[in-house]
Amino acid sequence: MYYKLDHEEPVEYTICKINFSDLTEESITQKASLSKIGPCEIKVYGNEGKFPHFHIVGKNFNCPVCINDARYFNHGNENDKLTNEQAQELYEIMKSKSELNSFEGKSVWKVTQMAWILANDDSNIILRKRPPKYSDLNKHDSIHN
Known about the structure:
The protein is of the alpha+beta class. The chain has one domain (12-138). The chain has 3 helices and 6 strands. It has helices spanning 25-30, 84-95, 108-119; strands spanning 12-18, 40-45, 53-58, 61-66, 73-74, 143-144. The strands form 2 sheets. The protein has a 4-stranded antiparallel β-sheet with strand order 1-2-3-4, covered by helices on one side. Strands 5-6 form a two-stranded parallel sheet. It starts with 11 loop residues before the first strand and ends with a strand.
């Protein structure tokens, strides 16, 4: 995790690491759209505009997802998508408890919300008790910047 020193510094919060269960060496070679995705991290960056979102980042993979809605965030060239199985797994991960010591007992999703608020001064985040149903990501249109 990187801490904000002042508003001019780039801000990046790593929320958690993900190893999607269906991304084995064998499945990677079988799925061209997921080639070399490997292990990923959920990240929140500063100065990212007015739509609260996080990124699922891996090697040659960047999938922006809205925090408030189960929708992808169209972020220019960063517009990779998850399979339905990975979207379900993301939903389970976001409901799980964070392993970051500073946020013990909070869900990964709550930590993601807090990171957005810390990293983006002009936040339009709606604080909710439960994450959106990310398993439905592929059922909705993307939100555009």
